[in-house]
Specification:
Length: 368
């Protein structure tokens, strides 16, 4: 089962799971959901939660109807509701001694390579510290032109950036049906989808709840991103208590199977970058290390050519000026000029601030 095997799992919670049609917070459901997270932690899984609900909780506090909100007012409501949302999570998760952090993301954060790399590193550091990130779209500052507008697609981008193995979209249905199950009694659940063809597109409906902004169509869009990112994705019923436990025990959901491996997706993402911004010349020792699958360290760098910033796509060449690999730099060209040829334990002293040791991490590198 795909969830069993996953090391990094992203779980998306919709607004309707946190607050019902009567604007009552579903605290019992959240308490049970926390037990699911505790169970996953026992198996040392890295977990990211993408949660809607800021605007819904803001509307509840201010006694407003979300449908009547204009964009500028919804941004203010979101900033109020975000505190309510995190307080709700903190109260429930603290009872189980689970540490939480908060990350607010905009569309630009996932589309711009440099920001995406920074987000990836933040997730990795939070995992190492034993914290679970709660991610939401930054509705307080995002305009209609730079918004995802739904957290299904946001969740798929987060899964892509974090290199997740599995994304779970908790919905109000068991998965994707052959027809709309709320209308047709003969609708059948589709358990596994490898190819999103015209038939799948056609049967994906776009129904919404009062608090939600997405429907089945946005979940299909999210699945497309996951399939090209090497990430398994499930649409499952989140309205029941212990929804993750239910997936593990019954597998009652719709799974979307990736078309490529995570590694292939990562390599394609890197190699498809625009023209490299610069070059790093390495010595034979570094070359041998890279051939053995190691990261590039400062000690093996002989020279830097060109001006580039952190996160830029650069060439790695040997002493004979033959290109060996391409990768995403963790440092600027000026920083690398200061630390080239130096041992990793001297980097912080030379730069005057703490930073990572790998100039180009092995996961951010593709041999050519």
């Amino acid at each position: 089962m795909y969830l069993d095997q996953a090391k990094t799992v992203v779980i998306k919670i919709g607004s309707s799971l946190l607050i019902n049609d009567k604007k009552i917070i579903r605290e019992k459901w959240l308490s049970e959901f926390v037990k699911d997270i505790k169970h996953l932690q026992k198996y040392n899984k890295n977990i990211i939660i993408v949660s809607s609900g800021a605007i819904a909780l803001g509307c509840k506090k201010l006694k407003l109807n979300k449908r009547n909100l204009k964009l500028d007012k919804s941004q203010a409501v979101a900033s109020i509701g975000q505190i309510e949302l995190m307080n709700l999570f903190k109260k429930k998760f603290n009872l189980n001694k689970i540490n939480l952090s908060q990350i607010l993301i905009t569309l630009e954060d996932t589309e711009q390579r440099r920001r995406a790399i920074n987000a990836k590193r933040t997730f990795e550091n939070l995992f190492s510290l034993g914290f679970i990130p709660i991610v939401n779209e930054n509705d307080s500052i995002a305009t209609s032109e730079i918004k995802y507008g739904d957290n299904d697609r946001l969740a798929s981008r987060v899964a892509q950036i974090a290199g997740a193995d599995c994304l779970i979209l908790l919905s109000d249905v068991d998965g994707l049906y052959s027809q709309n199950p709320k209308i047709d009694k003969n609708a059948k659940l589709i358990h596994q989808i490898k190819n999103i063809d015209e038939y799948i597109e056609k049967i994906s409906t776009n129904s919404t709840s009062e608090h939600g902004t997405g429907g089945m169509k946005t979940k299909i869009d999210a699945a497309k991103i996951c399939q090209l990112s090497g990430c398994y994705m499930a649409i499952a019923n989140g309205l029941i208590n212990r929804p993750i436990k239910n997936i593990l025990s019954t597998n009652l959901c719709t799974w979307f199977i990736p078309k490529v491996s995570k590694l292939d997706a990562r390599k394609k993402w890197i190699i498809s970058s625009v023209s490299p911004k610069g070059q790093i010349v390495i010595d034979d020792g570094a070359l041998n290390a890279l051939k053995n699958g190691k990261s590039l360290l400062a000690a093996g760098i002989k020279k830097v050519n060109g001006q580039f910033r952190k996160g830029d796509h650069i060439r790695i060449i040997d002493k004979n000026m033959v290109e060996f690999a391409r990768g995403l730099s963790s440092f600027t060209s000026d920083e690398i000029s200061k630390i080239k040829g130096q041992h990793s334990n001297r980097i912080s002293g030379l730069l005057g601030y703490e930073t990572k040791s790998e100039v180009i991490h092995k996961d951010d590198m593709v041999k050519v």
